[in-house]
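Reopening: structure tokens for the adenosine-5'-triphosphate complex, inputs below.
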Amino acid sequence: MLTRLRERKEWKFFAALPRADRKLATAWWAALVLRGLLPAGFAVTMGVLIGAVQRGDDLAVPLSLMGTVFVLLQVLAPIHQALSANLGNRTSAWLYDRLSEACVRPPGMGHLEDPELSSDLTTAREFDYGMTGPPMWMNMDFIAGGLVEAIGGFASALVLFGFTWWAPLVLGGAWLSTHWLLRESSVWRDRNTDEVREAQRHAEYAYRLAVDPPAAKELRLFGLAGWTVDRFITRRRQLFDLQYRATRLRQRPVIWSLLLVGGANVVVFAALAAAVNGGRLELDQLVVYAQVAVGTSAIAFGGINWAMDGAAAPVAAVLRLQEAMGTKGALAPPPDRPVPAVGTPAREVRFRDVTFAYPQGGERVLDGFDLVIPAGTSLAIVGQNGAGKTTLAKLLCRLYDPQAGAIEVDGVDLRSMAVDDWRSRVTAVFQDFIRFELSLRDNVAPGGAPDEVILAALAEAGASDLAALDTPLHKGYEGGTDLSGGQWQRIALARALCALHQGAGLVLLDEPTAQLDVRGESEIFERILAATRGATTVLISHRFSTVRHADRICVLEHGRVVELGTHEELLARSGRYATMFNLQAQRFEAGEGEGVAYEALG
Ligand SMILES: Nc1ncnc2c1ncn2[C@@H]1O[C@H](COP(=O)(O)OP(=O)(O)OP(=O)(O)O)[C@@H](O)[C@H]1O
Ligand SMILES: [Mg+2]
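Re-run output (same inputs, fresh job):
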């Protein structure tokens, strides 16, 4: 029972508040309880005042008592509102911190790609956008209001015991029963069903398409403006329909509630009247009890209302994610005595009988894969889209562990090294490299490096004159600038080269020049070769003019090496590579550029 209670998301929500901000949470609860008690207190002080008037006593004390309660009633509400808003914001921030940690900390990446976690991730990421309900700071105020009413109702019922024991039970019971009778009416319980989440995701996606700049080009080109708006409206309407269905009133429970509540009130007020008529109740007492009898009704309206659902769902989602992401983003357990990665690779990097499928299922990308990359040499990988080239690069960064087989560096399984230690040996330009909204300096050396090293790396990448090192690379910042795709790619290259000069031993370049013009590409490639000489380099590219300069070339197909050798060896073999190379060379000579797709071979 206790564990069930602990598991409830409402409990988790309240438990999160002091963790978000202990002082604010304490003040919020204190104001809440005080506000709850004040209406009953006001009734009592009014009784005291009337009693004093009847007896002809001094009115100063009862009047100031009543005045104090009245002022508190007035003043506490806006104070509490401010506390709620602040505490709500703190709670949001606390949740975002937790979520960021949960996303960023695991050494692997599987947790970010797992479909089972995606709805929790959506809830946790977007609860404060106000798309499906009020944001946290507002919900906090609604919850406070509900709890103030509930406490107020119970406090009134408590005072009513002074009249007779059964009156608060009858009246409180009747009002309380409305929660149960109308349970399907007031709460949007279905808020987080799969149906709602899906409608929400679609609605939000359509909205983003409409308002975010990156989609603007295609929306216009393909005439999708109307389609996007229609889609947004339809999904949104579906969301509202779901909401409406979950909140509509049921007629029969309403009638039952009315009868019950009406009956209870008639009985209690009749008893009050009878007591007055029988001389058992004075006017001052009547005033108090009649007021608290009315005040008991707050039990029905108060409580943990619908706002609770919207506020507790993200808390529960974040806590669930914290647990699940740790597991799903884990790699093989770290060794007790990790082998140091310093100086590696000195001999070779080897894929030994590696089998790998992405964690969320699907086909094996690599199946019994073997490949040796001698240290200090460059290996180019070519192959059609989806062949597994980027997957090889990701495995080398140890973003995933293979399900079978091993990746070995100088004979040591990568899993025997500390993951951070190994990663410090690797640098990469990924196909979808990151563009930091930071200064040029921080883009080239996010982990820091001397300016001369940064400038040298920029020069090698042909990006010397792009901007000053302090220029933010985004127009949104003061003095910031926007760059073209090719310019960004040069910066990504500079980042890898900078890491290389800082000591990395393995360089992974996944289509590093795909966005460069042909002339720029060959010029830069010469420099990259010079810069990476002596390092172990893996170059993934579709452009055969760049690939040919590598020490060895590997043709990858469906996760298997189908050809491996030097450019000359592969040409002499007249196989896949030779056909492809010649085709691209012919086109180039014919002035058609290098736009031959690998798939052209069929
Ligand atoms: N994060 C992922 N989750 C699940 N499957 C993935 C993921 N990334 C890639 N895949 C699948 O793995 C296979 C290999 O993908 P990979 O990205 O390694 O191909 P590639 O050779 O780099 O292709 P391209 O030339 O298009 O860049 C593909 O079938 C792809 O659908
Ligand atoms: Mg790729």
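The CA atoms of residues 473 and 481 lie 5 Å apart. Residues 594-602 have pLDDT under 50 and may be disordered. Marking as resolved unless the reporter disagrees.
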